[in-house]
From TrEMBL:
CDD domains assigned: APH_ChoK_like
Ranges of Basic and acidic residues composition bias in the record: 1-37
Protein's UniProt name: Aminoglycoside phosphotransferase domain-containing protein
The species this protein was found in: Agrocybe pediades
Residue ranges constituting the Aminoglycoside phosphotransferase domain according to the UniProt record: 146-319
Highest taxon, organism lineage: Eukaryota
Pfam family, one: APH
Residues covered by region (Disordered): 1-51
InterPro entries on file: AGP_Transferase (IPR051678), Aminoglycoside_PTrfase (IPR002575), Kinase-like_dom_sf (IPR011009)
Length: 349
């Protein structure tokens, strides 16, 4: 559940004399950003200044880059630079009626949560939903980076993703405000679907995965998120790690030194770098009227070795779905065996 404090942060004044002198008209002028202390970044969200997080309500306007081609490093080095031309995040403070309106919508949303999406989502109206994560929680699952990924996918492929309307910092929580896509979560309706619908679903999914795998990585061999930062794996979720300059360094990190023996199967292999959703399961696919209406939850996506999508699907799906998935997707049996062994290892740690 999201913590919804009842009181607003108090307005700070430089002195008692200034406090008495300020009128309601002057308070807005008094609260200008330049009067605040120098900004430091919020852990896990380098785009977000700490003092803005503490201020109460900040809006980050999401502007699509419309230029997903990406740009490499001119100096030949793979620094932690964005993987593509990123959308600009412009901050502004919500004031007056905007602030009151969003506050009211959030209070109403507590009574209108969508249980099919879990506690991380709140319904704002019939067509809008907010994905919410508490920045004070070190295990916050919501990252601004996810909005950049969705923008990149929307402008580079025909994969149905949710349209992002804005990103807010509201009472120490990050809110990704996005459209509410019609349909049901696939795992909720799978057992009621006909065999024809199931086969159609897998063919559609294959087409979307092919589109992801056809994207050109800006830094071949490098393991990174869409904006050049670190990635997330389910075994270490929600902590970010990397980026990694090559697949060897990536494997050395995630395949623990105590599991050297299974890694021998992968020691002499090389892989291409492909874009992966990272958590492509029945719980992240929306379905309605015989078609996939959206693929959601892109926070674990990024540029990975080509086998990554295959092994991540196996980690959390039903046996029937997995069997049908294997019939239409490229297989990586050795990599799957190693990944499965590592899942067991982390489960015991």
């Amino acid at each position: 559940m999201v913590d919804w404090p009842e009181k607003e942060p108090p307005i700070r004044y430089d002195s008692d004399r200034e406090k008495c002198a300020l009128t309601s008209e002057k308070r807005e002028e008094h609260d200008k950003p330049e009067r605040r202390p120098p900004a430091t970044t919020v852990p896990g969200h380098p785009e977000l200044p700490t003092h803005e997080k503490e201020a109460g309500v900040i809006a980050i306007e999401f502007e699509s880059s419309r230029n997903p081609s990406g740009a490499g490093c001119s100096n030949g080095k793979h620094a932690a630079t964005p993987s593509l031309a990123m959308p600009r995040l412009a901050t502004k403070k919500l004031r007056g009626i905007e602030r009151a309106k969003y506050h009211a919508r959030c209070k109403i949303a507590r009574l209108l949560r969508l249980p099919r999406y879990g506690d991380a989502f709140v319904l704002l109206d019939r067509k809008t939903i907010a994905k919410v994560g508490n920045l004070a929680n070190s295990k916050c699952k919501v990252r601004v980076q996810e909005t950049r990924t969705m923008d990149y996918i929307a402008n580079s492929t025909t994969i149905p993703v949710l349209r992002v309307y804005g990103v807010f910092i509201y009472r120490r929580c990050i809110h990704i405000v996005q459209e509410l896509m019609p349909g049901d979560v696939l795992q909720d309706v799978w057992r009621f679907m006909t065999e024809e619908d199931k086969r159609s679903c897998m063919q559609q999914l294959r087409g979307y995965v092919d589109q992801l795998r056809s994207l050109e990585p800006p830094h071949p061999g490098r393991v990174e998120a869409v904006d050049g930062r670190g990635v997330i794996d389910s075994r270490l979720f929600p902590y970010e790690y990397g980026p990694f300059p090559n697949h060897e360094e990536f494997h050395r990190y995630i395949f623990h030194e105590y599991r050297v023996e299974p890694m021998k199967k992968m020691a002499r292999k090389t892989w291409k770098t492909k874009f992966s959703h990272g958590d492509l399961g029945m719980h992240n696919i929306m379905w309605k009227d015989g078609r996939i209406t959206a693929i959601i939850d892109w926070e674990r996506s990024g540029w990975f070795p080509e086998y990554w999508e295959y092994t991540k699907v196996y980690a959390g799906c039903w046996s029937e779905f997995w069997e049908m998935y294997q019939q239409v997707m490229d297989r990586y049996p050795d990599e799957l065996e190693v990944d499965d062994l590592m899942n067991g290892y982390f489960a015991r740690v």
